[in-house]
Amino acid sequence: MMHLILADSELELVPQPIQGHPAVVKHAKLRKKRPSNLLLDATYHHQAIRKRYGSEAERRGRPDIAHFFLMNAQESVLNKQGRLRVYVHTRNNEVIYINPETRLPKSYPRFVGLMENLFHNGVVPNAESPLLWLEKMSLPALVDKIGAHSIVMSEKGAIKKLGNLDMPGDVVVIIGGFPSGDYITDMSFADEIVSIFDGTLMAWVTAYEVIAEYERSYR
Ligand SMILES: C[S@@+](CC[C@H](N)C(=O)[O-])C[C@H]1O[C@@H](n2cnc3c(N)ncnc32)[C@H](O)[C@@H]1O
């Protein structure tokens, strides 16, 4: 089984310090929601993010990365074979668990609505038959709970060809859910830190490369 984690992903509700910023208030009115119930999205809240978070502004508020990643992972052959478990870990140390049979919305606005619902209620659609649920948990704690060989994907890692990745049986693969910069979590707990390409790849491209490699090489 491959356990694929999108780590330190920039997925969060609008933080309290910027809920009153005019750009956020305007967007909340348009969405007919409270600012505190909106997903932080750089497309709409960039001014507010930049004013408050300065140098971090280029990475905050990127739910689109989680959306692309989840589309690729959930619709993959490996998932359809029942050999993939997908998790989204956030910058605030929450973990989103995803039932492998979940078909996520392809429409981005519907995905945003679903995530807002999840952050608000902790589970969707309901606790009796959950498709997605949220728990407070750090990345090392999640990896420890899974208990398999762990590989962090990073352009700063040791260069390895995809075909040389050590993915016997159960494996945890960690991919950054942020557009630039580095992991916030200290990755020294991981067994390996690996780069599969001489340059920066998008998170969802990295995800599909390792998913496809595992699907073909480890049957
Ligand atoms: C857009 S990158 C984030 C940029 C960041 N400088 C980095 O590589 O961590 C998103 C994620 O894709 C993966 N990634 C990007 N380039 C990679 C590479 N050459 N080898 C392995 N993973 C890569 C990493 O997991 C990374 O965190």
Structure notes:
By secondary structure, this protein is an alpha/beta fold. It folds into 2 domains: 2-10 and 61-217, SPOUT methyltransferase, trefoil knot domain (Alpha/beta knot, 3-Layer(aba) Sandwich), CATH 3.40.1280; 16-56, no CATH class. The protein is built from 7 helices and 8 strands; from the N terminus they run βααααββαββαβββα. It has an 8-stranded mixed β-sheet with strand order 4-5-3-2-1-7-6-8, sandwiched between helices. A hairpin with a 3-residue loop joins strand 2 and strand 3 (94-98). The radius of gyration is 17 Å and the shape is globular. The relative contact order is 0.20. The mean pLDDT is 96. Bound molecules: S-adenosylmethionine. Residues 153-155, 175-176, 178-180, 182, 195-197, 199-203, 206 line the site of S-adenosylmethionine (SAM). S-adenosylmethionine (SAM) binds next to strand 6, strand 7 and helix 7.
Q: Let me know the average pLDDT.
A: 96
Could you say which small molecules are bound to this protein? Answer: S-adenosylmethionine
CATH class placement of the largest domain? Alpha Beta
User: Would you report the number of β strands?
Assistant: 8
- Report the uncertain regions: none
- Under CATH, the topology of the largest domain can be stated as Alpha/beta knot
The geometry reads as globular
Question: What are the salient characteristics of this protein?
Answer:
219 residues, alpha/beta, Alpha/beta knot, 2 domains, 34% helix, binds S-adenosylmethionine
What's the short story on this structure?
This protein is an alpha/beta fold. Helices cover 34% and strands 22% of the residues. The radius of gyration is 17 Å and the shape is globular.
